[in-house]
């Protein structure tokens, strides 16, 4: 059974940091492309950071590049999103997702497995 469980969200002030973690099981993590997506009310779910475990390539949305870092622990089947210098516009529900694609993919449609999400709120 495939499982993705996010943790680490919360309420922080502008400029602070959070570390999101996604523990996975039930699929060959080391061959998957892993993504962190953000959703806010009234908007489509957007990718903020993606990592291909296959070739270690990454993608970052322009709005988070230089502040967020995605990484994975293959031994623990876990993907991490380190978020620094958080801004109010980073507020949203953050979802971890897994794609069978061997390359970096940024569109939600390519992802077969999803976690339930964790809320991140950044106050100004």
Notable features of this structure?
0% helix, four-stranded antiparallel beta sheet, seven-stranded mixed beta sheet, mainly beta, 124 residues
Could you please describe the fold and organization of this structure?
This protein has 124 residues and is mostly beta strands. It has strands spanning 3-7, 10-13, 18-25, 33-39, 46-52, 58-60, 68-73, 78-83, 92-99, 113-114, 118-123. The N and C termini lie far apart (40 Å).
Question: In a few lines, what is going on in this structure?
Answer:
The chain is an all-beta fold and 124 residues long.
- Ends distance: 40 Å
The SSE order reads EEEEEEEEEEE
Class from secondary-structure proportions = mainly beta
Strand content: over 45%
Shape designation: globular
- What's the overall average pLDDT, rounded? 97
**Helicity, as a percent range:** under 10%
Radius of gyration: 13 Å
Low-confidence stretches: none
The main β sheet shows up as: 7 strands, mixed
